[in-house]
Design goal:
The structure is a homodimer. Chain A is an alpha/beta fold and about 280 residues long. The first copy, chain A, folds into three domains: about 90 residues, D-Maltodextrin-Binding Protein, domain 2 (3-Layer(aba) Sandwich), CATH 3.40.190.10; about 80 residues, Periplasmic binding protein-like II (D-Maltodextrin-Binding Protein, domain 2); about 90 residues, ACT domain (Alpha-Beta Plaits, 2-Layer Sandwich), CATH 3.30.70.260. Chain A is built from nine helices and 15 strands. In chain A, strands 1, 2, 3, 4, 5 and 11 form a six-stranded mixed beta sheet that branches. In chain A, β13 and β14 form a beta hairpin. In chain A, α8 runs antiparallel to α9. The radius of gyration of chain A is 21 Å and the shape is elongated.
C-alpha cells in the first residue's frame, strides 16, 4: 500500500505511518500537505497520514483547512510519541557540535537541551530535511534534530536520544482515504467520529450545537475553531466525539446538528487509538 | 510609556502597538514572548503587546499558554491589518531579486507572489529581523518580506506593498499589564472579557460551561482549546465574550462558571476594538 506523508524520508509522519500500518508499506514523501491530499484524492496513492494535533504545540491548522477543502475521509488515527534525536555525521561527537539545525518547532521543543550544549540554532524547513542537508554539506560542527528513523534513512549517527524538554510530547495523526470505512467495520472497536460545521453568528449558537451531543451523552474529545477564509472572524468548528455514524444514536445526533448548522460535513468514523488517549 | 513586543524593531507587533497607543510610546523589542511577559510582570515595562490570533493562520498558542502561566491582565485589544512589503537595499529593483527571506508564515502568506517572481525562499526567525540581516549582509539579490515600518526603521526600500495572497489578513493583538483596568472605566464603550478554565473530563462538561453564557444571552466571540502541559489530551478552554465584569450579568456568569470549572481565571475586561471585528 502506498502511503503519502509530508516531508523528506525519515519525517515523523513516515515513522507514524509505519507504526500504524507496519513495515510493508511504500512511503511516498510529498513536499507539502496539499500534495498529500491531492495525491490521495487523485487516486494515485491509497492513503495519506497527516499530523493534526501535538500535545505541546496544539493543532496543525493547515490540515484542518485542507480537510474542509478536499472531500477525503478520515479512516484512522495514530497517536505517536515524538522522541527527538541529536543527529550528526558518523564519527562526530557531541563536543564538536556548535550549531543545531531543525524545524523551528523541534528547536523550540529542545530549547533547554540546546542551551546546555551552548550551540547556536539554525532554522530549517523540515526535521528530516535538516538531516538530509547536513549529510550533503559535510559539516562536522553541525547536528540536526529529527527522528531515529531519519538517522537510519540517511546513514547518520545518533549522538543523543530523547532530548525534548518535555516528555509528554505526542502527535495525533489522521489517516485519510478516498473512501470511508465500510459501516459494518464499525462495531468491533470503540470509534471516534470527526465533523466540521459552521453556525449563524448569534448568541448561544455553539451552545445549541453542543446540546446535540450533551443530550445524548456523547463524549466530545476535541473542539477546535478555525477562521473561515474570506469571512474575517467567522469560524468553523471541528469536533471529535466518541461514537460511530453506523450507530443510531450517533446518526441521530448528526441529523440534529444538521438542523442547527449552516454547513456540516462528517469527515469520518474510525477506530479510536487507545494507545495513549484514554 | 514603555511597550514591550516580541521581535526586532519594525516587527508587526511594534506597528500594532503604535497604531494602538500613538507615536509617543517607547517600544521595547524583546527576543521572545516570554521576555515580554517577564518584563511587564517585573514592572520594568508598563505594557506588552502580543499577537493572539491571525485571521488566516489561527491562534498564537504560545501566548495563550503564557497568559495562563503569568498573572498579568488583558487591558486592551487591537485588530491590525497585515500588509506585507517586499523590501530590499536602496537602489535594488524587483528584477534583481533571486531569493526572498522572511518568517515561514509570511513566506507562506505570499506564496503566489514569490512563485510569480521565480525567487527561491530562505526561512528566517522574524520578519523585521530578516530586513535587519539583509541590511547587514549587503546582498543585492535578496529581498525580505516584512512591514512598511521595518523598511523605515532600517532605511531600506519598499519594492512592492500588499503582496499577500489573501487581503483578509488581520492579526488581533492583546495589551497586557500588571494591573487590571479600573472597573469604572468599563461602562463607556462595549467591552469584551477573556477567561480561561478547565473542566472535569466528562460528557457534557463543555455544554454546561457554555450554558452559563447562553442562559444570559452573552455572545461568545472566540473559543480555543489548548492541551494542558503534563496532562496529555486534557484541555484548557480560552473564551472571549461580549461583556464586562463590572456589569452584574457578567459577574453572575463568572460566578456560575466557577461552580462548574475545576480552574477558572478572568484574564481581563477591556474595550472591544470595533475597527474590523463587528
Amino acid at each position: 500500500m502506498r502511503i503519502a506523508f509530508q516531508g523528506e524520508r525519515g519525517a515523523y509522519s513516515e515513522a507514524a505511518a509505519i507504526a500504524h500500518f507496519g513495515e510493508g508499506i511504500e512511503p511516498v514523501p510529498c513536499a507539502t500537505f496539499d500534495e498529500v491530499f491531492a495525491g490521495v484524492e487523485g487516486g494515485a496513492i491509497e492513503r495519506g497520514v497527516i499530523p493534526i494535533e501535538n500535545s505541546l504545540a496544539g493543532s496543525i491548522h493547515r490540515n484542518y483547512d485542507l480537510l474542509l477543502r478536499h472531500t477525503l475521509h478520515i479512516v484512522g488515527e495514530k497517536i505517536f510519541r515524538v522522541r527527538h534525536c541529536l543527529i550528526a555525521r558518523p564519527g562526530a561527537s557531541i563536543g564538536d557540535v556548535r550549531i543545531v539545525t531543525s524545524h523551528p518547532q523541534a528547536l523550540a521543543q529542545c530549547e533547554h537541551y540546546v542551551a546546555r550544549l551552548g550551540a547556536a540554532i539554525e532554522p530549517a524547513y523540515d526535521t528530516a530535511g535538516a538531516v538530509k542537508l547536513l549529510k550533503g554539506s559535510g559539516r562536522r560542527d553541525t547536528a540536526a534534530i529529527a527522528s531515529r528513523r531519519a538517522a537510519d534513512v540517511y546513514g547518520m549517527e545518533i549522538l543523543a536520544e530523547g532530548i525534548e524538554d518535555d516528555e509528554a510530547n505526542f502527535t495525533r495523526f489522521l489517516v485519510i482515504s478516498r473512501e470511508p470505512l465500510p459501516a459494518d467495520s464499525a462495531s468491533a472497536a470503540p470509534s471516534k467520529t470527526s465533523v466540521v460545521f459552521s453556525l449563524r453568528n448569534s448568541p448561544g449558537a455553539l451552545f445549541k450545537a453542543l446540546s446535540v451531543f450533551a443530550l445524548r451523552d456523547l463524549d466530545l474529545t476535541k473542539i477546535e475553531s478555525r477562521p473561515i477564509p474570506g469571512k474575517t472572524w467567522d469560524y468553523s468548528f471541528y469536533l471529535d466525539f466518541v461514537g460511530n455514524t453506523a450507530e443510531p444514536v450517533t446518526a441521530r445526533a448528526i441529523e440534529h446538528l444538521r438542523e442547527i448548522a449552516t454547513m456540516l460535513r462528517v469527515l469520518g468514523s474510525y477506530p479510536r487509538d487507545l494507545g495513549i488517549d484514554p
